[in-house]
Amino acid sequence: MERTVTAALTGTVLEPSELLFSVAVAEDADRVAEDFRITVDGLAVQPTEVLAPGGSRLHLCRDVPPGALSVFYSATVAGRSTPIEVTDLDVATYVRPSRYCESDRLAQVSYEEFGTLSGRELVGAVRDWVHKRLQYLSGSSRFTDGAVETYLARQGVCRDFAHLVIALLRARGVPARIASVYAPGLTPMDYHAVAEVALDGTWEVVDATERAPRQTLLRLATGRDAADTAFLTTHHGQLRFGSVTVTAFAGSGLPADDHRSPLSLG
Prior knowledge:
By secondary structure, the protein is an alpha+beta fold.
């Protein structure tokens, strides 16, 4: 399956800044073409590529001068990536509570809702529960909201769905993490967030929003929660954000996905 993705970001750098971008597809993607340009007032800014967990390729820009910021990224990817094996470090990292996935505060809820279920049966029950109980509503959550706020509000966007799935599974000792992705078929088009769950020794993708076929998804960044996967972070300095435009297409069309069969991000 060939997939083509683009991202265009704009903004204004107000003072010398250090910026981190997560817009490039992950390291293991079979890239047949790629273009990545960062400019300020038309002059090129050279980023340093940093390899992060899960094969994420982050791009760090130090000493970015004031001016009009423009970022353009495009990639064409052929085929799908090999499933990622779960390591002991993964288990130690992704079974604990984190900023947006407060599994310790949702442990009682998880046990009350899912009883003695375990393994794949538990994962399926959590996915179905979140899909049915939450309303997908653009603009309904704040960037500071975590899984607890989402559970109480019963609404949110993709990252909120993923956070709640992750927290409910971690509460039962199942390692789970978030992945930001390009998502052909997503409407409206934007960056997307899904959960990944450790099952049978590999990471499998779970998308409780069911808003795009999982076979088309392309990984950008991986982490404990959305704090690790933002497409743009200002480490220091000041940036006035402008706009972001994302496109993602699957060359062979959109496959059917029942969202219940085992599948890894590719």
